[in-house]
Amino acid sequence: MRTFFSYLIPLSLLFWSVVASDYHELLTLKPLPQSTLLASFNFRSNTSLSQFEAHNFRYFPRSLGQILQHAGTRELHLRFSLGRWDAESWGARPWDGTKEGGTGVELWAWLEAETDEEADRKWRILTNALSGLFCASLNFIDETRTTRPVMSFQPEGNHPNSTLANMQLLHGVLPREVVCTENLTPFLKLLPCKGKAGISSLLDGHKLFDASWQSMAIDIRPICSDGEECVLQIEQTIDMVLDIERSKRPRDNPIPRPPPAHELKCNSSKPYHSGDTCFPTDFAEGQEWALDQVFGKPIKGTCPLTDPNSPPVCVQVPHSRDIYTTAGANEIKSPNGLSRWYQIPSEGDFSMILPRMSREGEHAKTDADEIVKPETPLLYAERSFTGHGYERGGVRTILTNPSPDTEVEFVYMESLPWFMRIYLHTLRAQIEGASGSQKDVIEEIYYRSALDRVRGTQLELRMRIPPASTVFLTYDFEKSILRYTEYPPDANRGFDVAAAIITILPSESPNAPLARQKTSNLRTTTLLLSLPTPDFSMPYNVIIFTSTAIALAFGGLYNILIRRFVGADEGPEVISGGLKGKIIAGVAKLIGKLKGTKGKID
Question: Is residue 349 pLDDT above 90, yes or no?
Answer without folding.
Answer: yes
